[in-house]
Structure formats: C-alpha cells, structure tokens
Specification:
Its EC number is 2.1.1.14. By secondary structure, the chain is α/β, with parallel strands linked by helices. The radius of gyration is 27 Å and the shape is globular. The protein starts with a strand and ends with a helix. The structure holds glutamine (GLN) and zinc ion.
Length: 761
C-alpha cells in the first residue's frame, strides 16, 4: 500500500529558517549561509519522510517565503518596480515579499492574503501589461536533483496554472484570457525539463477547485489541462486538490487523462458522495486524503479504515489507492518530540507533521490486513485505546449548560433602538464620542514584566503592582488627552487569544508547536483539549482598578468566542458549533462579572470572525454564520439595557455579510476603515445598518501621526453617509505595536478633530 505527503513544514524543527532569514535581512549572514540553512532543512525533511517509507515524497514544497510567490518568480511574473531595484535574484524575491527600503529604492511589498481557509498567508502576484511570462526553473530542477542525491525519487510539487491565474491580480488592462496560453505553454516546458532531469511524477496543486466554480472557470480549467495533458511530456501528472471537495468539476476531472487525482476526504464533505455517484476511473490513482493535514489530533484508525473501505468498494480494488494527507502538513507544527513540559497523557493524543508520517505508514499497513488481523495488531489496539482514554476532557456541567441554552438566551432585550436611547441618557457621552480599541504601547518593560512573572523571576504581587502602575498612568494619559471612553491598556496580554485560553479550563498550551503564518512569522495556536469553562475571573481586576482611577467611563476588554475558537486548534470529537457555544458561555460569565463590578461599557473583540467564512458561498450561513453570530449574541444577551456592548473587527471587508454583522446585535462596532476607500459606509447605509459605528479614522499600522485636518476630513466624509448620532471616533486597531510618543500625538489630534467637528454645528 502506497503513501503520499502533499507538503512538509519548511520553517525547520526549531524555526531555523525563520531565524536565519531574519539574520539575513539584517545583513548578519550571507546569502550562502542562508541557503545552507535552507538546504539542511530540506534534506532533513526528505530523509525523515524517506525513513518512514513514504512512497510519494514531495520536493519543491520548500519556500524561502511563500509558494505562490515562488510560482510567480518561476514564470517571471515580477512587477517592474522590483526588477528596477537591480537586486540579486534572492533579494528581488524578498523585496516582493517584504518591500524594500534601502539605498537602491523604496517599494512596498506585494499584497498578502489568507490562503483559502487557513491561517497561512500567500503573496498576491501582480500581472502588469508588459509582464513577460518566461520560465526560469533552475531552482525547481535543482531541488529535484537534491532529492535524487539522497536516493529519493521525489514527486515535484507545483502550484497549478488555474489556481495561480485565479489568485493573480491583473493590474493593467490584460486579463486571464490574454495570458493563459503563454503561461500554460511554459508549464509544458517545465514538465519537459523535469522529465529531462529524470523526474517521473509531478503533483500539481489546484486548491482553487474546491471553491464555487462557474462555467467560465470550468472552461479555463479544461483549456489549461487539455494542453498540459496532451503535451506528451512523459511525466505522470497528478492533480492535487485540498481544503474541500470538488463537486463543481468532478465529472470533468475524471474524464481528463491525469495519472492520479488527490481528493480530500477530511474537509471534503461531498468527496465520498462524488466518487459513489460518478465512480472513479480504473486507469487512475486515487490519492485519498485521509490524514488531517490541518489539525493536530491523532488519527482515529477505525474511522479512517471505514472510509477507506467505502473508497475501496467504489474502486472495486485497493490497487490504485494511495493513502495521503488531506493537505500540506505546512499547517501543523513539526513534531511533538519538541514538547518537554506537557504531560505524556496529553502529548500522546497529538500528531504533528512527523507523527503523521507514522500514521500514514500504519494506516497503509492496517488496510491490507483482514478484519481479524487488523483488530489484533498492536498499533490498531493502541490507537483505539488512546481514543477511548481522554483525561480530564469532559465536564458534565459544561455539557449540561450548553444543552440547556434556550432560544431566548440568544436574544438581548430590550431591542436595540430602545437600548440606544437608554444608553445615550445614562452614559451621557458627547456627540462623536472618542475612544481607542484597547491596547496601549507594549514597551519592552511591559513585556519583560510578563516574562519575568511567567519565569518565576518576580512574584505575583510585583507583577500586579507593575501592571497597576501602568494602568494608572494610561488612564491619566487618556484623561489628559481628553478621550471620552477610556481603556485599561491591556498590559497583561501577550496575545488576545492565549491570554483568555490561560484562564479557561479545557485549554492546553505547547512550547514549540509553531506554525508558519506568513514568511518568517509563526504562530503557536493553543489547543482546545476539553470542555471549556471559565476557571476564574479573567479581566475583572484590571478593569475594576482602571475604573477606580477615573470618574470617566472605562470600557472592559474581552476577546469573543468566535475569535478564540478560530485561532486555536479545535477539537474533533465535538462539533465546532458546540465548542463555540462552550466558549461563549465562559465569556458570558466574564461579561456579567464585569457588569456586576460596575463596568458600563464592554468591548468583545471578534478580530477573526470573517476569516473562517466557508470557501463556498452556499455554506456561509448554514456551515458557519448560523452558529457564529448566535454565539456572539449569547455572550452579551444577559446584560442590562444600559450596559453598552462594543465589538471590534480589524477589517472592513464585510460588505457581503452586513446583515450578519448587524445581527450580532452589539451596540457599537469599531473597524478598520482608514486604509480602505470608505465604500463600506455606502453599503452600511443601503443595508440600514442599525449598530453605531466607529470606522477607524487613522491607520495604526504606521508610526505616522495624522493631522487634525486629515481626521476632520475623514470624519466629514463619514458624516455624509452616517447619522451623526451613530458615529464614534477611534483609531482603526489596538495601539500595542506603536511607540508612546506617536500614540499620544495621534490621539491628541483625534480628540481635537472630534471637538472641531462637534463645533461645526
Ligand atoms: N483589543 C485589542 C487591542 O486593542 C484588539 C486587537 C485586534 O483587533 N487584533 O489590541
Ligand atoms: Zn483590530
């Protein structure tokens, strides 16, 4: 039984690539040194996979920054402004990825976007009218040969032309139709070169196929692959799909002469139905994505074998089935071996990239055994025993509480309009109230205080004392600046999810389970281990203290349940819906606690709400918003009418889900608007958006101080589209990454601008 891996993490077991790249950016190591680190990582990855006996081992899954950017460079899709810098090949590449601001010029980076439904970000290629597509495949061929030198006959991974064209931004007048022929002919050349170098198999990733496709998309796909597959390059072409099912194009795919097709049976809800309904051709290999490439739980062999059996029945034989990961392992950490602190009872339930290789091997062996031998085999028995033994994972009280949620618990009363009146009276804020998003600059001293406390260098009392001094100063500063609604500054938080996770039961944390988010940036998502509930009050002490420091209104600051869930590794033994409701109840307890302690305004951040919208529009509500929005409502439905609930989102691209955002039923929403064209405001108006809004009036992602005039202009533009009584004045996100000086200057101007606009009437 054969096995396949779609891609392996490339940041290195101890993030070696990250550290080497960062040194290279600072000029501390040479290009050669960086390339040596990279080559060591690639070798280690190849050897590890080969050691585990993986049949189809990928090459060219490595990248110095991002595979989509690699693909752009492979075909010379490099905007002029980067070429004109006259840098080395590698530095031109990094200039596209990160921007360039040194002696040779000043250019911004290309845009970055989320890679489908993951937390990985790709670089958006830009196609200009005079871009000349031209193959430059030395690196790809070199990497193939590198594997050969280790005695590994790898499959060469490529991002396919369909996905590449769909993700590329055409900045001139040209369109996909103008360039598709040239591009696909260069892909054909590439296949010929691979063949000439001795390569036998190419795996072409086309994840875009799991999205909603229209007839034009299908035409484009067929056009491209008609040429590729009829080019007689002599290499076997595998079509690899992932992150969902290919329901819109499956019938076409099975008619095309691919040597194999990779199908995701983990996230692809319709995958089994598709093969059952339309069959699978006997002349092709089915790469069955059965080991989850995105989550960190051990595979349940029983379930996987059952799925395998269904597939085998459809194919009438297992001869042409390959056991594969569901997507690249890029999305999971390297190995559980690096975790030294977490107890074995936890660790043994996790499979990171390296452990998943063993799973592939064991599953491949198990499916070859008859039922009796299977059940008797050690790895099967161990696996089943493991799944039967989850420690401390279930909490009956939490489950009962979720099961007892009533329809009315999702409904805050009285209705918005009535609350709005009550709150205006009670809070007595001026027109265009000014506020911030929560965090204030996290200086080195702030971070040190947290670190020292965590490492036991200082006592809890010392830690608290430091933070309280910071809070008192932060409040005094805000009073001096003249803001209307004050915040405590969030000095206690390393991260808006991890901080809450640490105060909730049901969470576990890793030491080194890093996953690449983009380029050299990695994240370490906490793991939802068991039923989640609030262990203790989380933010109340800080908010209460801040309130004591002032007579002004203080806004409490929380992270919402959808964001907490989306930035964690979720459980697989209960539904996402149940998980988010558990978290919602925990945060609800905190909301009520804050209210009971006199906090009259509470902000519940949902920075990650939009990012898990399903890839297919038809699934947006049924698979996500229909429970995500109610979960948010559950968090705040218990508060008094006069308590004002805010929420915040770090983006304004919610034009297409405005009714859902309004249905969160917050009293105020602040969001990023300073970098967008304020088009969102038209859409809010058209949709009769009821929630009060604070579209950020300046960009906090840069140290630049906005002038009063600029902010006044922004506000006046907003006033053209929004009711004065609904408009708040605030920056567009938290200030934690900013310095003290520019923060103060910017906020002073913000307050002056609000006063000026108030005086206009
Ligand atoms: N309240 C958080 C802060 O101000 C919000 C962060 C975010 O939106 N990402 O930092
Ligand atoms: Zn934000």
């Amino acid at each position: 039984m054969k096995t396949a891996v779609i891609g392996f993490p490339r940041i290195g077991k101890d993030r070696e690539l990250k550290f080497a790249s960062e040194k290279y950016f600072k000029g501390e190591i040479s290009e050669e040194e960086l390339k040596n680190v990279a080559s060591e990582i690639r070798k280690e990855n190849l050897l590890e996979q080969s050691k585990q006996g993986i049949t189809y081992i990928p090459v060219n899954d490595f990248s110095f920054y991002d595979n989509v950017l690699d693909t752009a460079v492979l075909f010379n899709v490099i905007p002029k402004r980067y070429k004109e810098l006259g840098l080395s090949e590698l530095d031109t590449y990094f200039a596209m990825a990160r921007g360039y601001q040194k002696d040779k010029g000043n250019v911004k980076a290309l845009a970055m976007k989320k890679w489908f439904n993951t937390n990985y970000h790709y670089i958006v290629p830009e196609f200009e009218d005079d871009t000349k597509i031209k193959l430059n495949d030395e690196t790809v061929i070199e990497r193939y040969k590198e594997a050969v030198s280790l005695d590994i006959d790898a499959k060469v991974n490529l991002i396919g032309p369909f996905t590449f064209l769909k993700l590329t931004k055409f900045v001139g007048s040209k369109t996909i139709d103008d360039v598709k022929e040239k591009l696909v002919l260069e892909y054909v050349k590439l296949l010929n070169d691979i063949k000439a170098a001795g390569g036998k198999t190419v795996s072409i990733d086309e994840p875009y196929l799991v999205r909603d496709l229209d007839s034009k998309d299908k035409e484009l796909f067929n056009y491209l692959y008609d040429i590729i597959l009829n080019s007689n390059s002599g290499v076997k072409v595998i079509l690899q799909t992932y992150f969902g099912d290919v329901r819109d194009i499956y019938e076409d795919l099975i008619k095309l002469p691919f040597a194999g097709i990779g199908i995701d049976f983990v996230e692809g809800k319709e995958s089994l139905n598709l093969i059952k309904k339309y069959g699978f051709p006997t002349d092709k290999i089915l790469f069955a994505g059965l080991v989850n490439g995105k989550n960190i739980w051990r595979n349940n062999y029983r379930k996987t074998i059952d799925t395998f059996e269904v597939i085998k029945k459809v194919l009438k034989s297992d001869e042409n089935i390959v056991i594969s990961t569901s997507c690249s392992l890029l999305h999971v950490p390297y190995t559980t071996e690096s975790e030294t602190k977490l107890q074995k009872d936890y660790i043994e339930h996790f499979a990171f990239a390296k452990e998943k290789l063993v799973e592939l091997k064991e599953i491949a062996a198990l499916v070859k055994l008859d039922d009796f031998a299977q059940k008797g085999s050690k790895c099967y028995k161990d696996n089943q025993a493991l799944h039967a033994s989850r420690i401390n994972s279930f909490d009956k009280k939490v489950k009962d509480r979720v099961s007892k949620i009533k329809k009315s618990d999702y409904e805050r009363l009285p209705k918005f309009e009535e609350r709005e009146k009550i709150q205006k009276e009670k809070l007595d804020l001026p027109l265009f109230p000014t506020t911030t998003i929560g965090s204030f600059p996290q200086t080195a001293a702030v971070r040190k205080n947290r670190r020292d406390y965590k490492n036991g260098v200082i006592s809890k009392e010392q830690y608290i004392k430091f933070n309280k001094e910071k809070i008192a100063k932060c409040i005094a500063l805000q009073e001096e600046i003249g803001l209307d609604v004050l915040v405590h500054g969030e000095y206690e938080r390393n991260d808006m999810v991890e901080y809450f996770g640490e105060h909730l039961s049901g969470y576990v944390f890793t030491e080194k389970a890093w996953v690449q988010s983009y380029g050299t940036r990695c994240v370490k998502p906490p793991i939802i281990w068991g039923d989640v509930s609030r262990k203790e009050s989380i933010t109340v002490e800080w908010s209460k203290f801040a309130k004591q420091c002032t007579t002004k209104k203080v806004k409490g600051m929380l992270t919402g349940p959808v964001t907490i869930l989306n930035w964690s590794f979720p459980r697989e033994d209960i539904t996402i819906k149940e998980s988010v409701l558990q978290i919602a109840l925990a945060i609800r307890d905190e909301v009520l606690d804050l209210e009971a302690n006199g906090i009259e305004i509470i902000q519940i951040d949902e920075a990650a709400l939009r990012e898990k919208l399903p890839l297919r529009k038809s699934d947006w509500y049924s698979e996500y918003l229909d429970f995500a929005i109610p979960a948010f409502r559950l968090v705040h439905s218990g508060v008094k009418p006069e308590t004002q609930i805010h929420t915040h989102m770090c983006y304004s691209e919610f034009t297409d889900i405005i009714p859902a955002i309004d249905a969160m039923d917050a009293d105020v929403i602040t969001f990023e608007a300073s970098r967008s064209d304020l088009q969102i405001l038209d859409s809010l108006k058209e949709n009769n958006f009821k929630t009060e809004v604070g579209p950020g009036v300046y960009d906090i992602h840069s140290p630049r101080v906005p002038s009063v005039e600029e902010i006044v202009n922004a506000l006046n533009l907003m006033r053209e589209k929004l009711d004065d009584n609904k408009l708040w004045v605030n920056p567009d996100c938290g200030l934690k990454t900013r310095g003290d000086k520019e923060t103060k200057e910017s906020l002073i101007n913000l307050v002056l601008a609000a006063k000026e606009v108030r005086a206009q009437d």
